[in-house]
Amino acid sequence: MIKNYDNWIKKSCQNINNIYHELDDLDQKIGDGDHGTTILKGLKEAEKIFKENIENSLDVIMSIVAKQMRLVMGGSSGILMSIFFYESGKINPYNISLSIVTIFQNTVNKIKKTGKVNVGDKSILDVYVPLLDYLNTDIEIDKNLDSINKIIKSSSESTINMEAKVGRAKFLEKKGLGIIDPGAYSTSIILKEFFNSLYK
Amino acid sequence: MIKNYDNWIKKSCQNINNIYHELDDLDQKIGDGDHGTTILKGLKEAEKIFKENIENSLDVIMSIVAKQMRLVMGGSSGILMSIFFYESGKINPYNISLSIVTIFQNTVNKIKKTGKVNVGDKSILDVYVPLLDYLNTDIEIDKNLDSINKIIKSSSESTINMEAKVGRAKFLEKKGLGIIDPGAYSTSIILKEFFNSLYK
Amino acid sequence: MKKIINKKNEIVDDMLMGYVKAHSDRVKFSSKNNRIILRKIKKNENKTSLLIGNGSGHEPIAVGWIGEGLLDANVVGDIFAAPSGDLILEGIKEFKNNKGVILLISNHAGDVMNGELAIELAQNSKINVSSLIMYDDIASAPKGNEDQRRGGAGTTFVYKILGALSEKGADKDELLTLGEDVINNTRTLSVAVSSGISPITEKKIFELDEDEIFIGMGVHGESGYGRQKISSSKNIIKFMMDKIFDDYSYNKNDIVIPFVNGSGSTTLMELLIIYKDIEEYLTKYNINSFKPLVNEYITTQDSAGFSISLLKSNDIMRELWKEPCSAPYFHI
Amino acid sequence: MKKIINKKNEIVDDMLMGYVKAHSDRVKFSSKNNRIILRKIKKNENKTSLLIGNGSGHEPIAVGWIGEGLLDANVVGDIFAAPSGDLILEGIKEFKNNKGVILLISNHAGDVMNGELAIELAQNSKINVSSLIMYDDIASAPKGNEDQRRGGAGTTFVYKILGALSEKGADKDELLTLGEDVINNTRTLSVAVSSGISPITEKKIFELDEDEIFIGMGVHGESGYGRQKISSSKNIIKFMMDKIFDDYSYNKNDIVIPFVNGSGSTTLMELLIIYKDIEEYLTKYNINSFKPLVNEYITTQDSAGFSISLLKSNDIMRELWKEPCSAPYFHI
Ligand SMILES: Nc1ncnc2c1ncn2[C@@H]1O[C@H](COP(=O)(O)OP(=O)(O)O)[C@@H](O)[C@H]1O
Ligand SMILES: Nc1ncnc2c1ncn2[C@@H]1O[C@H](COP(=O)(O)OP(=O)(O)O)[C@@H](O)[C@H]1O
Ligand SMILES: [Mg+2]
Ligand SMILES: [Mg+2]
Ligand SMILES: [Mg+2]
Ligand SMILES: [Mg+2]
Fold this sequence. Notes:
The complex is a heterotetramer, with two copies of chain A and two copies of chain C. By secondary structure, chain A is mainly alpha-helical. Chain A has eight helices and no strands. Chain A has helices at 2-30, 35-52, 58-73, 75-88, 96-115, 125-135, 145-157, 182-199. The two termini of chain A are 12 Å apart. By secondary structure, chain C is of the alpha/beta class. Chain C is built from eight helices and 13 strands. Chain C has helices spanning 11-22, 85-93, 109-124, 155-167, 172-184, 233-247, 268-284, 315-321; strands at residues 27-29, 36-39, 48-56, 73-79, 100-106, 129-134, 186-194, 212-215, 226-229, 255-262, 288-289, 293-295, 304-312. In chain C, strands 7, 8, 9, 10, 11, 12 and 13 form a seven-stranded mixed beta sheet that branches. A six-stranded mixed beta sheet of chain C has the order 1-2-4-3-5-6, sandwiched between helices. Chain C starts with 10 loop residues before the first helix and ends in an 11-residue tail after the last helix. The chains are: A mainly alpha, C alpha/beta. Chains in contact: A-C, B-D, C-D. Chains C and D meet through helix 1, helix 6 and helix 7 of C and helix 1, helix 6 and helix 7 of D. The structure holds adenosine-5'-diphosphate (2 copies) and magnesium ion (4 copies). One adenosine-5'-diphosphate sits between chains A (27, 31-32, 34-35, 38, 75-77, 80, 111, 115, 117, 123-125, 166-168, 181-184) and C (81, 109-110).
């Protein structure tokens, strides 16, 4: 499991590294232009911290990773995006599927509470919730990776047509309409890698 | 004589009003971009003050005019360009030609002293000195107006090929080379009108 | 990029190093973390400490406001990013033995989330800390929803007035009560004239046409009342003051403290002209001004623009507002 | 034009009105002329008065520097234009019964011509006045011709130190002697990063390419050491400090007062980073810094750029430098 997680974080970091400029550009349009730089910084730190703490149990590692991500990222995205990393440490190797549902359920609850955010507000939540809904239909994850990837992709893209009610975009003239939410986009990459690393 | 002077100042003001933008543009290139605005302000004030004090003798009028020009113009050009206006009040109606030579001689002396400036330094002095030299050749002014106008024009244009040793242009990379000195240009207009108003 | 800096990812740390070196007689780094800046000499533990965590890029606020009669500490985030709750917690812990601690929070999502996390963690550690969320920007939420408004330049009144009162030994509750009172009586409206360049993205922070200004725009370019053609100071001030007067009821003989804040490259010449027009507007309504502040205090890099903040004041507020303070970049 | 003003030809008068209104507790107009700004309360006639005439557009200098421990008066010219000698004379006459008067003159042609005229006229009226011509900009004339250099940001040392000494009752000669001493030990070098817009011409004051800076450029865009590609703060500071160190011999254990002045839209963040690099440079040579000044004090509208000034100080200078003063826009 630790190997999968190590791989997940590494791959996420690599993928974000390839497109962080794109994320900055999106955030430039509807925020302050730093989302790519910020999440990349967080993931690089996560990769480093993971390695440094590899002797510990996964939940300990991930709680340290999450805290350090929060610390280096700062802002709204640090505190919100580290939630999934923290929760992910509670995976149960003996019942992965069930524990994943719990992880996503807790992540969604915490994001909602911390971010005072709802579905449709144009944020990372708009990726987590459709995915949780799908996982809640009792599917076998390993046999439905394609569907999962599709849901992740389409739900992050669905933020294009949303008007922001949270984040900096909320204060824009057009509330970010027509632009994909950068946090949702980066989250989609991270979640895709999460499932790929667990099951491939 | 008072009528001629009134006319001189009015005409100068009109002419400068037509081209003060051009003077600002020249000063923009080799100074701080305000010479046209500044000299126009000075001449407008001169016109007003002249009218207000028209009951006085010419030398009294012109000393008040000069002081007010200096006051509203400020900067280097106020103090330097008002000198001729001050000296011009000392014209002798019974011997115009001779007194004009004295006026120009005194103007040149005072500009040199106040401005710490020499011929060739790219300034208003480069208009006054060639003219004074010509006047010193004992010509009859009224019969040589064309030559006078030519000298005024060519001497102001000669500043194009000078490198500034005074004024703001002195600190420029090319020391204003290639650009006519705005102060010399405006002075050429004022002096041309001076002779025209006296003799036409 | 036309910014004089060294490595881009070290801007904030370099700045703080320069700040602490330049004002070593008055401020220092926390021994625990170089993102926590403290007064050189800590006041005794009977003081209710005041601190704030905020993103950088808006200097001199708040890092420049550490000193007697103002802040005890500032926790500094990256450019335009609130510091994490964990870091703010470290800042709060510097005062764990103090009678009380107040964490000021300017109402911006990141600052609130991280601030609240820090408060929760600190309270778990039995530190007597409370937060005070400050808001004043009338363009960011309508009348009736004041507490959803964002923190703008008017938060300065809270910093300064609580700073002075805490110095005199007031306890936390007294400070919080006065703080709420100041917030309730503060209104701010800002206008953007042209964008500065972000040192991170190296791009303009927002776009405005050559003849356009934007009334109510937030510090990062977020919208308010919208774009209009630039006009005279008098016109713009009338438009803005009318909006402020629609939002709060000022009465004859009220005494307000006006604060005209420049956002970076708007010149002091302009700010003073703006102040003149504001005072003339107030005078027409028979409202008096008390010790106004006119300068650049909360900037967004080299953006051009300004904000008007008004505090409808009482005697106590005015007394505290004019108290001297020793912060390197706050001057009354 | 992206400037918030009213009528273009009333900019200076509007600004002064705003200034006097905003700081009515400390400054006022002369009853004779609204271009002469005085302390609200005149010090007694035993004081040697300090004043200066200068063009506007560079605020807060010098109009913002009127107050106890600094200037007694400022005579304000139009944008970038020295006031006429006649107007400066009016300013001097405000102190005609004082023990002595010093007219500070920053070495720029217009200021000198008009200042000298004023001195001549005032001396004719039997006022005990002298001028002190201040220069410091090493890019404007070579070593050996120091007195032909222009007045730059380093003139600030003269204002502040003589301001503090004159407040203590020193007489004119003592002040002039110390003033000369300060001037002889001051060096300034400036760099332009990008041009602001002149409120008169509505155009850029000078032109620089997107990746270019200009070392030694004067406040209106005049040339010095020339253009170079922008590089890191460390590189630029090394280049500039090397030039300053070529010009004046600093020794181990010298104590210098550093002043980093921002010319308008250069951010405080940058100025503090620059200060860090300056202090590190000084430290390498074992030179100590004393109470540095880092902020925007002498600006050229919204131009970007900065200058470095160093005063090699002695005990007396340092004592006077750190004295408090009450001017609305000078803070030590
Ligand atoms: N209240 C919120 N709830 C959920 N997600 C949020 C919230 N606020 C911001 N976000 C997410 O954070 C992203 C921006 O992240 P980032 O640019 O790193 O932070 P910042 O806005 O502090 O610069 C947005 O695209 C959005 O997805
Ligand atoms: N020392 C000097 N001697 C003679 N003429 C000078 C001197 N300095 C400046 N001038 C003249 O003044 C002109 C500039 O005038 P203006 O732009 O009105 O003043 P400023 O330079 O104060 O803005 C120059 O073109 C030059 O002819
Ligand atoms: Mg962002
Ligand atoms: Mg000029
Ligand atoms: Mg950010
Ligand atoms: Mg000028």
